[in-house]
Amino acid sequence: MKNKMLKVCVVIDVEGFISLRQGNPRWNRWQRFKGKINNLIKNFRYDEKGFDKIYNLIIREKFPVSFMLVGSLFSPRKKTEFIDYGYHTLNHLPLTLINDKKLEREVKNISRAISFSAPLWMIEDVKNPDRVFNVLKKEKYRVVVYRGIDDGIKYCHYDAIKPLIERNGIFCLYKSNDFQGNSSKKKMTSIFRDIEKNKDKKAVYCITTHDFVHKNLNNFVWLIRVLKEMQEKKMIKIVNMKQLIK
Ligand SMILES: [Zn+2]
Fold first, then answer.
1. For the chain, what percent of residues have pLDDT higher than 90?
2. How far does the centroid of ligand 1 lie from the alpha carbon of residue 15, in Å?
3. Which domain holds residue 171?
């Protein structure tokens, strides 16, 4: 492997419809209204069984991914080298907004995961930035998806293409982009162009998505095909989060 080759990491938060039911603490009244409507029409727009569909595709393609599972709804399936089963908390609660006792219950490492993603990426509050990291470290997680700092329900999250950074002994993987089953062709090609443009960067390009937003798998199939082609041309290396820290 070339020394400077972009790594690409696909991370799927697996949560069924839990976040649609919960809404988002950051929403204003109008957004809450839209969220309620979205929840009502969820069976029309989304697929609660998205995990099954994506899982079968990943097995067929032997494509490296990290599945981040909500523990009250999903548990790890067959072990393979290309699948990393990470944790997306027990009940999908916003970690920076809940008390210590709840926090410990939410992140308790019941399936001995190595990787972790926080609901709404709320992992580091400006008032006590180390709090969630310290509990994650105690639970022996080693790598988390990262997007920046929160301030109560306000936040300054951003996407970036960076090498892993270390925080309190935990590696942070910056989210770089995201996609869904109904993302436009333009959006998908912009991701591919972005990866190509950064192929010689010593960094990780992290693409996130959710299980339930893939009612239609065409974009996922397309992503896998393009990334495999890029890997064959030795432009990128496809890895999951566990492989990243090996
Ligand atoms: Zn989530």
1. 82
2. 6
3. 6-244
